C-alpha cells in the first residue's frame, strides 16, 4: 500500500505540466503502470480508491465498501462501514441501495459474533428502508434471545435506543424458550403481538389462574 503511495507521490511531484489536475495525473499514472505491466499493484488498495473518489465525487462508493478492497482483513467490515459513514457525512455519492443494505447486515453480523449486540443494533438502524430496518432489528432480537441478559437489554434500550416493542419481542422469544407462559403473554402485549397475547392468555394463562 505505502510503496504505491510513495510511487504516486513521486509521480505527481515530477509530473509535467505541474498544474495538471489530480484526475489527469492519476490517469497518466495508471497508463504508466499499464505500460510497465504493473497495473495489478492498484488492486485491493483502499488508499488509491479513496484518492480516486476524491478526484471524482460522482464515482460509485461500492468498491470502497467491500473488504476485498483491502487485503488486510478480507472479511472485516469494520473499516468499510466507518468509511461509508464518513463519506456519507462528506456528502459523497451514496452507493447502490443493495450494496449499502448488505454492508449494514454483514457488519451487524460481525458485531453479533463479537457479542456486541447493541452496536449491531446501531448499525442496523442505519438501514434506509423503514420496513427492512424494522425486520432486521426484529430478527436481531430473535437471534439473541437465548443469549441476551438484562445488561444486554439495558444497552439495547439506553445506548442503541432500540424501540421498546422490539426489545419486548426479543424478551417474548426468551420467555418462549423458557416456556414461561405468563411472561410470553406480557411481552407479546408489549411487543404489539396482540393476537398472540390473546391466544396465550385464553389458552394457557387464564386456565392456570382458574385452577390455582
What does this structure look like?
This is Nup96 domain-containing protein. It comes from Onchocerca flexuosa. InterPro entries: Nup98_C (IPR021967). The structure is a single chain. With 212 residues, the chain is mostly helical. The chain has a domain at 115-211. It contains eleven helices and no strands. The protein is rod-shaped, with a radius of gyration of 25 Å.
- SS element count, helices: 11
Order of SSEs: HHHHHHHHHHH
What is the general shape?
A: rod-shaped
Number of strands: 0
Output the keywords.
212 residues; mainly alpha
Provide a compact summary of the structure:
Helices cover 65% and strands 0% of the residues. With 212 residues, it is mainly α. The protein has a domain at 115-211.
Task: Map the helices and strands.
Layout: H1 2-13, H2 22-35, H3 46-55, H4 78-89, H5 97-113, H6 117-124, H7 130-143, H8 150-158, H9 164-177, H10 181-190, H11 194-211
